[in-house]
Design brief:
With about 475 residues, the chain is mostly helical. The chain has helices spanning about 1-5, 15-35, 35-55, 55-65, 80-95, 100-105, 110-125, 130-155, 160-185, 210-225, 235-255, 255-270, 275-295, 300-305, 315-330, 340, 355-360, 370-405, 410-430, 440-465, 475-479. α11 packs across α13 and α19 (about 410-430) packs antiparallel against α20. It starts with a helix and ends with a helix.
């Protein structure tokens, strides 16, 4: 009725709008009174769904920020729900355009095939998994990650959208640190995810685990550097302040993997960013000063990071057991997410172990995504995952070349930042079992997304510069 009124030039009456608002408020009040979680979910839907209908890219920006808050009590299911709502809105708005879907498949066939093949193989391993229900649960999480991977490549098709998404990732990183500070300063309770390491005094922000937070903060720092290309002074100051917050959060996590990742990514930045080495040096100085300030205030942090004598607080023992399992099941693995279910059988294999209790009784994961995938999905699974990684790295590199040829320095800088973010995430994954983490799938999707944008810009530029065909009555002149 409202649409008919608008078509006839009549706006809905204020009384009608008021009655509708009262009705919505009454429904929300009843829902909140009956069940707070249902009421909050309904309230979020009433706010988020119109946003997704208005702009899918903006909805994805909200989604990636919410991902950083997924470990906050009461918000665990919100990222998946917002992702599903965004997907349904996209289907309703654009699915009828078959040409758009076909063009998307053609443009992204390599990463799509690699991602679908990897997730499909993970699901297939449930056939021989000792506890298939656990594998199916992990496949469900991978399905959400795959959905985000596809939706990012599908909806982010303009340069400004890519910049929005990068800003949202940086904002989520900063917000995660700030939420952690607000909840308990820079000290947190023991993590529920990484029980191999002593978490007392280690900062986990809103991520639930210090190592997972560190693995997300390093890509955030890299993307902030990429966004600083040719921006206003106020924007650069805001990004610089964000880098300081993220760096302090990274230092407080005391994550060795995070520090290895940021060190190698910083060195790589100096190599691939030749024309902007002064800016990169300024960014690195900001990071170093923030780290030095934190280490000066908390000397124990630096002592833990530089001390590797404890073998990663049990990781080396876990890796030893994982290697034994991999040797027994090299091709097909023992089933996705099945290491905790079978590890107790291999603790008596040759080799000295100090963390037998933790491995057997606490059901620890491998804490190395590559070793874990080999153990659980076999050589087939790890090769499929590495092929996906290789495709996305290549896409980042080609995007840099394409934007450079187009003399688009802003987007070339963002593509370099995407490459550094992906490299740092892959390095941090050496110490984590984070294959289902939505943030690493976001970073994987960013390279192919930027490459598609670069190629679309190149085609548009060629169309503009190409001479128009003559009209039929002008053919004689052309002859």
């Amino acid at each position: 009725m409202a649409s008919h009124a608008l078509r006839r030039g009549r706006a809905p009456s204020s009384a009608g709008v008021g009655l509708a608002a009262v009705g919505v408020a009454a429904v929300l009040g009843v829902a909140l009174a009956a069940n707070v979680k249902i009421g909050m979910a309904l309230m979020a839907a009433l706010v988020f769904v119109p946003l997704a209908v208005y702009s899918i890219p903006l909805a994805l920006c909200v989604w990636i920020v919410v991902v950083f808050l997924a470990q906050v009590p009461g918000l665990e299911s919100i990222p998946n729900r917002t992702l599903l709502a965004t997907t349904l809105c996209w289907i309703g708005l654009f699915a009828a355009r078959r040409t758009q879907a076909h063009g998307f498949i053609v443009a992204h066939r390599a990463p799509l095939f690699a991602a679908v093949a990897f997730v499909g193989w993970g699901a297939f391993t449930a056939l021989w998994a000792p506890v298939p229900g656990i594998t199916i649960s992990t496949v469900k999480d991978l399905g959400y990650s795959l959905l985000a991977f596809v939706l990012i490549m599908l909806a982010i098709n303009r340069p400004e959208y890519a910049r929005w998404l990068a800003v949202a990732f940086v904002a989520g990183s900063v917000l995660s640190v700030l939420v952690g500070i607000a909840e308990g300063g820079l000290t947190t309770a023991a993590s529920t995810i990484d029980t191999t390491a002593s978490q007392q005094g280690r900062f986990s922000g809103s991520a639930g685990d210090p190592n997972y937070l560190a693995a997300a903060l390093v890509p955030g720092i890299m993307l902030a550097g990429g966004l600083a290309i040719k921006t206003r002074l106020t924007q650069r100051l805001a990004l610089g302040f964000s880098v300081v917050i993220m760096t302090i959060g990274l230092a407080a996590t005391q994550s060795r993997g995070g520090f290895i990742a940021i060190t190698i990514a910083a060195l790589l930045a100096l190599v691939i960013w030749r024309g902007r080495r002064l800016m990169i040096a300024a960014l690195l100085v900001t990071v170093v000063v923030a780290l030095a300030g934190w280490f000066a205030a908390s000397p124990d942090t630096w002592n833990r990071i530089r001390n590797f004598d404890d073998g990663g607080s049990g990781r080396t023992d876990i890796w030893t057991v994982a290697a034994h399992i991999g040797e027994r099941h090299p091709i097909f693995g023992v089933g996705l997410s099945q290491f905790p279910q079978v590890s107790y059988r291999f603790v008596r294999q040759p080799g000295s172990l100090r963390a037998v209790y933790e491995i057997v009784d606490q059901g620890l994961v491998v804490h190395n995504v590559y070793l874990e995938l080999w153990v659980e999905t076999g050589l087939i699974g790890i090769l499929l995952y590495l092929s996906l990684v290789a495709v996305c790295l290549r896409a980042c590199w080609l995007a840099i070349a394409e934007f450079t040829l187009q003399r688009d320095e802003v987007m070339a800088g963002l593509a370099r930042a995407a490459l550094l973010a992906l490299v740092s995430s892959l390095l941090a994954s050496i110490f984590l079992s984070n294959v289902t983490d939505r943030r690493i799938w976001f970073v994987l999707a960013f390279g192919p997304t930027l490459l598609a944008i670069a190629r679309r810009q190149a085609v548009s530029a060629q169309a503009v510069s190409a001479p128009s065909l003559p009209a039929p009555d002008q053919l004689a002149v052309w002859r």
